[in-house]
Amino acid sequence: MARYFCKLRGEKVYLSPINVDDVEMYTRWLNSLTLSVPLGQAAEVFSLPREREVLERLSKEGHQFAIVERSSDSLLGNCGIMDHNTGNGTAEVGIFIGDEKRRGKGYGTDALLLLASYAFKLLNLHNLLLRVASFNARAIRCYEKVGFREMGRRTEALLVNGKRYDNVYMQLLASEFRCPYLDDELPA
Predict the structure, then answer these.
(1) pLDDT tens, position by position, for the chain (188 residues)?
(2) pTM for this model (two decimals)
(3) Residues 35, 93 contacting (CB under 8 angstroms)
């Protein structure tokens, strides 16, 4: 029985509907400080029942995806579109690569290119927003590769280990987005 179903295919990854049976993996990742600190959730404790509820809700929302490595069909992380405002054509995006060993290898960039392609080419959105901690240089570089640009900061909004950091707000406009993903599958 298939575990993942390709909705959008990139170079390194494909995006699939979330599989709730991956609850143990997500719970392990979200309890790891290497992931939960950058996500701003370090003080939270994620139990299996709590994460199952979250995954069940996300799996029904329609714009949440598992990030799956193409070469191995292995789960790498999660990405999605939130606060989707159809009237204004705006939304917020979020992404993470759960496995520490897989970070910094281009999987997040490929997944975010797919997610932005989906947002602009299928959902007809105009503006995507994301938030990132100022200490997360690797994520900021990933977002910039996709085309996101800093639009502002919420100064000293994050307190981690007694030190304050900024929340960096980044945006991407449809008119500035350049990516061939989905072009072959959609009418010109």
Answers:
(1) 679 999 999 999 999 999 999 999 999 999 998 898 988 888 888 899 999 999 999 988 879 999 999 999 999 999 999 999 999 999 999 999 998 899 999 999 999 999 999 999 999 999 999 999 999 999 999 999 999 999 999 999 999 999 999 999 999 999 999 988 888 787 76
(2) 0.94
(3) no
Q: Residue 145 is encoded by which pair of tokens? A: 């590769």
Whether residue 68 contacts residue 129, with contact meaning beta carbons closer than 8 Å, is answered with no
For β-strands 127-133 and 163-173, DSSP reports them as antiparallel
Task: Report all structural domains of the chain as residue ranges with CATH numbers, in order of start.
Answer: 8-126 (3.40.630.30)
Round to whole Å and give the CA distance between 150 and 162: 25
Angstrom CA distances, 154 to 8, 39, 109, 129, stand at 33, 16, 24, 14
On whether the CB atoms of residues 170 and 149 are closer than 8 A, the answer is yes
Provide the 10 A C-beta neighbour count for residue 149: 11
User: Side chain identity at 173, as an amino acid letter?
Assistant: L
**Cβ partners under 8 Å of residue 185, min gap 6:** none
- In this structure, the chain runs to a length of 188
Measured CA to CA, the distance from residue 76 to residue 22 in angstroms comes to 11
